[in-house]
Amino acid sequence: METIKSKQDFGRVFSGGKRANHRLVRMTVLRLNEGGPARVAFVAPKRLGNAVFRNRCKRVLREAAREAGFPREGFDVILFATQGTHDAHPHEVAQAIGSVMGRFDKNKGQ
Predict the structure, then answer these.
(1) What percent of the chain stands above pLDDT 70?
(2) In a domain, 66, yes or no
(3) Which residues of 44-66 are buried (b: 16+ CB within 10 A; e: fewer)?
(4) Is residue 13 part of a domain?
(5) How far, in Å, CA of 58 to CA of 80, rounded?
(6) In this structure, are strands 75-81 and 39-43 parallel, antiparallel, or unpaired?
(7) Cis ω for the linkage preceding 37 (within 30 of 0)
(8) Which structural domain range is residue 81 located in?
(9) How far apart are CA 79 and CA 65, in angstroms?
(10) Between 81 and which of 6, 35, 85, 108 could a Cys-Cys bridge form, CB atoms 3.0 to 4.6 Å apart?
(11) Which CATH number goes with the domain that contains 74?
(12) How far apart (Å, rounded) are the C-alpha atoms in residues 60 and 15?
């Protein structure tokens, strides 16, 4: 799984991407025009809690992303943890990711 690491790449996804929310996960998605590799990033903001709490959230997000088949071809995605991410099972978060990504897949032709 290739991840987004540079500040420039994060900025590009933030400025050009679309945002969507779910109780268990928030995401910003940028559709790729060039044929570059699809990537994903996992973010747990400090306002969620201490480092142990945030690391657990990121572990849940990583496992859920694997289960949901990330990174998806043609997209750069940033996944944000929410308060609900910590206590959720990765399978539940994967379903949430799938439902939110479905909104972007429907708009594929646009």
Answers:
(1) 95
(2) yes
(3) beeebeeeeebebbebbbbebbe
(4) yes
(5) 8
(6) parallel
(7) no
(8) 7-106
(9) 9
(10) 85
(11) 3.30.230.10
(12) 26
What's the whole-number mean pLDDT along residues 65-88? 92
Structure tokens at 48: 């969620």
- 9 CB burial (10 A radius; 0-12, 13-18, 19+): middle
Write the CB contacts of 82 (distance below 8 Å, at least 6 apart in sequence): 23, 24, 25, 26, 48
Of 32 and 52, which is predicted with more confidence? 52
Tally of domains in the chain: 1
Query: Is residue 1 in some structural domain?
Result: no
Q: Own/partner pairs for 93-97, CB < 8 Å, 24+ apart? A: 93/24, 93/25, 93/60, 93/61, 93/63, 93/64, 94/63, 94/64, 94/65, 94/67, 94/68, 96/22, 96/23, 96/24, 96/25, 96/64, 97/22, 97/25, 97/27, 97/64, 97/65, 97/68, 97/70
Q: Which residue has the tokens 């290739």?
A: 2
The dihedral built from the CA positions of residue 29, 31, 36 and 38, taken in this order, carries a sign that is positive
pTM: 0.89
